[in-house]
């Protein structure tokens, strides 16, 4: 439990810093109290007292307004306004995935932009966020909050995410929040999901997209299409090189063990 809390705290700080540095699509400004009252009324009638945003702030061109008293970290929010494409598919930001993992309701951030532009509050129900996977099949399915820990009872090991678009701290927080447990490579657990971005001989490595896509979907996806295959090389040099590195590593470990026995 202590390790879990420390891991979550460390992941939170790194993720927050990254989200603040990420490019934005509009400038977020605090609106006057009298202008905020109608919005607060609409949200409170739906049990929404605190909100978070992603993809908004510190931008140029467009702007949106939001009462400062409503804004909180996404982990403590009742509603997350997320930037979406024209068809309602969400922009995959760190806060979007965290919102999914923490069971936060989502709404299209165009609601805030239209409010500022038209100077009147639109209907929140018209600003849906939808599943991109269903949209590809011609189905418009709204994204609903996740109410269960989809990785409960499952064990994970992060091999290496160096150079990946999916940071290790964020990946770990999603796993832990969704009920998973993280161990190191020395663990003797028999059934471990290895997450990384490089193929390793004798191991089944899953790309981190499996974690992120499962969290977005709200259910554990089939692993087959996320398995990293060895690089194709007609001379087999790439595969041989990786196997050889694995053998050398094993020999080194054995040598160290013998030295310790001496």
Tell me what the structure shows.
With 262 residues, this protein is α/β, with parallel strands linked by helices. Helices cover 37% and strands 12% of the residues. The chain has helices at 2-21, 33-44, 94-101, 110-118, 132-135, 168-177, 209-217, 237-261, and strands at 27-29, 51-54, 63-65, 79-82, 105-108, 155-160, 181-182, 193-196, 205-206. Helix 1 (2-21) crosses helix 6. Mean pLDDT is 77; it is low at 21-33 and 234-262.
Ends distance? 37 Å
- The low-confidence parts are 21-33, 234-262
Number of strands: 9
Name the overall outline. Answer: elongated
As laid out across the biggest beta sheet, the strand order is 7-6-8-9
Oligomer: single chain
Number of helices: 8
SSE topology string: HEHEEEHEHHEHEEEHH
Helix content: 25-40%
How would you summarize what this structure contains?
The chain contains 8 helices and 9 strands. With 262 residues, it is an alpha/beta fold.
Q: Helix and strand layout, with pairings?
A:
Layout: H1 2-21, E1 27-29, H2 33-44, E2 51-54, E3 63-65, E4 79-82, H3 94-101, E5 105-108, H4 110-118, H5 132-135, E6 155-160, H6 168-177, E7 181-182, E8 193-196, E9 205-206, H7 209-217, H8 237-261
Parallel strand pairs: 1-3, 2-4, 4-5, 6-7, 6-8, 8-9
Helix pairs in contact: 1-6, 3-6
Give short descriptive properties of this protein.
single chain; 262 residues; alpha/beta; 4-stranded parallel sheet; 8 helices; 37% helix; disordered C terminus
């Amino acid at each position: 439990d202590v390790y879990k809390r420390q891991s979550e705290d460390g992941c939170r700080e790194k993720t927050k810093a990254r989200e603040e540095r990420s490019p934005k699509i509009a400038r977020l400004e605090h609106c006057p109290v009298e202008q905020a009252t109608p919005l607060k009324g609409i949200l409170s009638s739906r049990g929404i007292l605190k909100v978070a945003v992603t993809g908004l702030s510190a931008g140029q061109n467009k702007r949106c307004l939001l009462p400062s008293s409503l804004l909180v970290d996404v982990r403590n929010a009742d509603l997350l306004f997320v930037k979406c494409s024209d068809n309602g598919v969400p922009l995959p930001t760190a806060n979007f995935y965290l919102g999914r993992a923490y069971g936060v309701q989502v709404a299209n951030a165009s609601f805030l932009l239209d409010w500022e532009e038209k100077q009147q509050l639109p209907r929140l129900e018209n600003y849906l966020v939808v599943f991109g996977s269903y949209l590809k099949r011609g189905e418009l399915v709204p994204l609903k909050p996740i109410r269960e820990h989809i990785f409960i009872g499952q064990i994970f090991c992060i091999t290496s995410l160096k150079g990946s678009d999916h940071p290790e701290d964020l990946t770990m927080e999603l796993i832990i929040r969704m009920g998973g447990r993280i161990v190191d490579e020395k663990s003797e657990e028999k059934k471990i999901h290895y997450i990384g971005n490089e193929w390793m001989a004798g191991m089944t490595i899953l790309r981190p997209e499996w974690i992120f896509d499962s969290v977005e979907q709200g259910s554990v996806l089939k692993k087959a299409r996320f398995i990293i295959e060895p690089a194709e090389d007609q001379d087999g040099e790439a595969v041989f090189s990786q196997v050889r590195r694995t053998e050398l590593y094993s020999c080194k470990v054995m040598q160290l063990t013998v030295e310790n026995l001496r």
